[in-house]
Amino acid sequence: MKLHWQILIALVAAFVAGSLLGDVPLFIRTMDMLGTMFLNALRMLIVPLIVSAMICALLGIGNGAGLARLGGRTVVYFLATTLISVATALVLVNLVSPGIIDGVPAGERLGLSADTARVTASVADRGQGDLLDILVRMIPVNVFEAAAKADMLGLIFFSILFGYFAARLPDGLMQSQQRFWQGIYEVMIRLTGLIMWFAPLGVFALVSQTVAQTGLDALLPLALFFGVVVAALLIQMLVWLPLILRSFGLSPLRHFKAVGPALLTAFSTSSSAATLPVSLQRLQSEAGVSAKVSGFVMPLGTTVNMNGTALYECAAALFIAQAYGLELSVLTQFTVVALALLTSIGVAGIPSASLVAIAIILTAVGLPLEGVGLILAVDRVLDMARTAVNVFGDTVGAVLMAHLEGEQVLSGATAAKVAVAPGSDAPV
User: Which pTM does this prediction carry?
Assistant: First the structure.
């Protein structure tokens, strides 16, 4: 059975088991242990995989013109798709107004205590927040400390510099660097294949635990907001991103089939960083994307390209403002859009990290932080959904960049033949 079918079956079984066994403490503890082990196994690969993938990619790109071309196209794609996702959220939230119920702001019904007049005055006095710390974080004081803390932004900045100058060493030294880092990268990919044998069990454990602890009843008080966010995420994932692929003559259906296990892993783990090993393996073995392109685009995208996260941050900020009965001006809404775009860049690829970014946005426009508590009931499930959109946006970018570089992608041919484990489509 193909891996994506195994994971889909595990997802369905997890929802059933979590609903039926949610009040059994032993079940929750066991699932917590298994889920944590699976997540830890994936996270174990992140630092060596990102560093080796980025350095190998830069060693393979070659001269400065090639790097500038690939880097420029990648950044334009990231900015364009993230802006599209935020605009989608902005339009839907303004059209549906999930923070207004029966013509009345939902704040009191949902337990918000801040005085609306005071909040309105606070919003009027605030401007853009100080996000310069994102630029500061790009340069790590200690690269080993950055690795220990999984500081993605600092690691990628160091890896880009290291790979750029390693590619300009004399031939003998450059080839030694290339063999060394390529060896590390190949080991990480093979370890990924081994861990993916256990993906169905890990997915089952993570999702069943979530359903058992939160239950589906928690969604009901915020059902309208939940529905708007899910609709916006689906539009981004099923309309805008496939439309980009189609406009370049690429098949969205083949792309979904190629990266399906990565999307399901992203949904179950709520971590684009933990999904990175799976994404790289699927792009190279199933979509035909070279290690050079995928190794550059995917680690960068995992850190700075957060379509789903930016969409969610914008929707959450506007929803909280509506719940307080505030009419945000066009300028303030533009500020929210800009902050959603910028803070999504600095959000780590870990579960629920966007709650911190939402707090930054609320503070920047003068809204009370108690609004964050309003969305906690639905955040976990929406975190799973928006992470899948984040990863899908990254994989579309990798395939598109490979296509523009002249590679034959999504054609049914793989970039390289790999060994396949019995009973699975994951390479080892």
Answer: 0.76
Name the residue ranges covered by the structural domains of the chain.
Answer: 3-404
Main-chain dihedrals φ then ψ at residue 105, nearest 5 degrees:
-55, 140
Q: How far apart are CA 30 and CA 115, in angstroms?
A: 44
In angstroms, rounded to a whole number, what is the distance separating the alpha carbons of residues 337 and 311? Answer: 9
pLDDT, tens only, 113-144: 555 455 455 544 443 334 456 567 778 889 89
Q: For residue 158, which of 169, 173, 144, 143 has the smallest C-alpha distance?
A: 143
In the chain, what is the straight-line distance between the N-terminal and C-terminal CA atoms, in Å?
A: 16
Q: Give the amino acid at 379.
A: D
CATH topology of domain 3-404: Proton glutamate symport protein (1.10.3860)
| CA-to-CA separations, 73 to 165, 223, 285, 287, 311, in angstroms, rounded | 21, 38, 23, 19, 22
Instruction: Write the pLDDT tens digit of every residue in 195-242.
Output: 888 889 988 988 888 778 766 555 555 788 999 999 999 999 999 999
CA distance 157 to 162: 9
Q: Which residues contact 17 (CB under 8 A, 6 or more apart)?
A: 27, 204, 208, 211, 212
Q: Which of 19-28, 222-231, 413-422 has the lowest mean pLDDT?
A: 413-422
